[in-house]
Amino acid sequence: MAKSINISYIPEIEYGEAWEKQKQIVKAIDEQQQKEHLLLLQHPPTFTIGSQRHPEHLLLGPEQLRQQGIALFEIDRGGDITYHGPGQLVGYPLLWLDGGKGLNLHGYLRNLEQVIMNYLAQFGIEGSRKPEYTGVWVGDEKICAIGVKFNKCRHRKGFITSHGFAFNVKSGIQEEGFRGIVPCGIQEYGVTSLEDVTGRSFTVEEAAQGIIPHFNELFGYTGAISADNSFINE
């Protein structure tokens, strides 16, 4: 039976604020004070460096970052460096993974990838995986980066997920942000977007609405974006 989940869409929120909100919601889910939650949002221009910690993959110095208005965060998700900015749909699923039911952390990552692949298939676009990398690709160009954290529960068995996926929607995002880094430390492949691979125009909110049914189906939830776009719905 499908479980109910809170879903929010935030047109833009500073990265640091969203990170703190994730931590608050993870704690509330662990304490069973709130339902699980899917945050869908956009960030202003931001580079995040994951736990692999390869600062050499950042190609801009502090002054260049300041001039271009790009924030920089070292964070606690897995993976290397990536870019977040306008025109990209960022998804933070905050889900309880029951430690007593054959917990499969790799399966969670594969399901996240499959959500994006199923959405692309609506438009006749074949999304794929590369065995050595996490994320979703169209040909040899990455369209969706994935980096997560599994937060060990303190009050029940299992883990609660945080961080998640960054799905490039608008054309031109490659030039706007990714040229300042070696995305995810991958030098041999490029980056693309939903608009580039379909030849159609999308808003980020349209992409968010389109992805939700696939997320619900694969993860066994029922939910829609709340009318007030709030983080805490109950």
Question: Main attributes?
Answer:
three-stranded mixed sheet; single chain; 14 strands; nine-stranded mixed sheet; BirA Bifunctional Protein, domain 2; 234 residues; alpha/beta; globular; 28% helix
Q: What layout of secondary structure does this protein have?
A:
Layout: E1 3-4, E2 6-10, H1 15-30, E3 37-41, E4 46-49, H2 62-68, E5 71-74, E6 81-84, E7 88-94, E8 96-97, H3 105-121, E9 128-130, E10 133-138, E11 141-152, E12 159-168, H4 173-177, E13 190-191, H5 194-198, H6 204-219, E14 221-222
Parallel strand pairs: 1-14, 2-3, 4-5, 11-13
Antiparallel strand pairs: 3-7, 4-6, 7-12, 8-12, 9-10, 10-11, 11-12
Would you write up a description of this structure?
Strands 2, 3, 7, 8, 9, 10, 11, 12 and 13 form a nine-stranded mixed beta sheet that branches. The chain has a three-stranded mixed beta sheet with strand order 5-4-6, with no helix packed on it. It has one domain: Bira Bifunctional Protein, Domain 2 (BirA Bifunctional Protein, domain 2, 2-Layer Sandwich). It is globular and about 45 Å long. It is built from six helices and 14 strands. By secondary structure, the chain is of the alpha/beta class. It starts with a strand and ends in a 12-residue tail after the last strand. It comes from Fontibacillus phaseoli. It is found in: Cytoplasm. Pathway: Protein modification; protein lipoylation via endogenous pathway; protein N(6)-(lipoyl)lysine from octanoyl-[acyl-carrier-protein]: step 1/2.
Give the overall shape.
globular
Broad structural category: alpha/beta
What would the average pLDDT be, to the nearest integer?
A: 88
The CATH architecture assignment turns out to be 2-Layer Sandwich
Assign the CATH superfamily.
Bira Bifunctional Protein, Domain 2
